[in-house]
Amino acid sequence: MSVVRTIFLQSPSISHFSASSSSSNPVSLKFTVSCCSVASPVTVVNGNVDKKPYERNEVRLGLPSKGRMATDTLDLLKDCQLSVRQVNPRQYVAEIPQISNLEVWFQRPKDVVRKLVSGDLDLGIVGLDTVLEYGQGDEDLIIVHDSLDYGDCRLSLAIPKYGIFENINSLKELAEMPQWTPERPLRIATGFTYMGPKFMKENGLNHVTFSSADGALEAAPAMGIADAIVDLVSSGTTLKENNLKEIEGGIILESQAVLIASRRSLIQRKGVLDITHEMLERLEAHLKAVGQFTVTANMRGSSAEEVAERVLSQPSLSGLQGPTVSPVFCKRDGKVVADFFAIVICVPKKALYKSVQQLRMIGGSGVLISPLTYIFDEETPRWRQLLLNLGL
Fold first, then answer.
1. Residues 112, 117, 122, 124: is their CA dihedral positive or negative?
2. How far apart are CA 281 and CA 279, in angstroms?
3. What region does 164 belong to: left with phi over 0, alpha with psi -120 to 50, or beta?
4. pLDDT, tens digit, for every residue of 1-29?
5. pTM of the model
6. Contact 122, 59 (CB under 8 A)
7. In whole angstroms, what is the distance from residue 143 CA to residue 259 CA?
8. Residue environment code for 242-278, b if the CB has 16+ CB neighbours within 10 A, otherwise e
């Protein structure tokens, strides 16, 4: 939306405007100023802002633009047959050829959340910590899939192992330390200036001040500019190397990558709900199949029922819903007979060898093993939950 404003200014006459004029009459100068706004349009009704989806035909998916989260996100989508095609690596827009009318926009994770709220994006994949920090409880944000199985970390409070904190091992003990007063509050350095203060207030730590910082937070206590930090922790190695420790009750959030959407877009924008359904089904089917293997074996038996009974007698051979038993036909003396039966079961990786042993014990032979790519349910449970949350 463009705004054009015309401004008139008056000033005394200037000699080079009219050299022959000796008059001191004011001269009017006219300026035209054009401003361009790129934000999504809003409507103000009775003083309230009514956000409406920006009028566009494409559905937009926001993905992290850099770092480990960006790489892992692209890998997951590729494993779901949703490879992102980027013509130019310097461009911030791409596509997923398998889904028509979907644009992929590479953004900083916090900008993915902000643009979902503003209506400039419809879907996004970021860490749960980013959703809660920059979404700040906005009811328009809805988590479609809460467990994409990568980007695992925790947002945690960490204090020094030394000095006055040496014997402090819990949040309760930290809160009860007499050192913290209105004049000398607990100083915390963090990049999470929404969740950090919220957590402290909810846990009764009243004499606390926060300083905003990004990167190398672990050095803040040693430098004397903070007493503690609130930061993301993966393995905890960096904390240990900087003489910091986590404490009981100090974990603010367990985080991992999630698929989020704008509630407004899901309901109002054409195509968003259908694309969300397809992405959700592909993600669910792939993630459910990770670490699962198809085991096929031949087994001699008098009937399918008799073979199934032998298979189900072994605890590791039940599969997802039970074994599939089908006859194996061969020709003997001019007749087609079925002396063997094929057993097909689904087995998790950790129970794979044990399952093979149990099959052998009950007469299984010719065991074939292959990894599973997808397991599609009759209906995705998270899809049902999403429709319920949307009131559809």
1. positive
2. 6
3. alpha
4. 444 443 334 444 433 433 334 444 444 43
5. 0.80
6. yes
7. 6
8. bebbbbeebebbebbbbbbbbbbbbeebebbbebbee
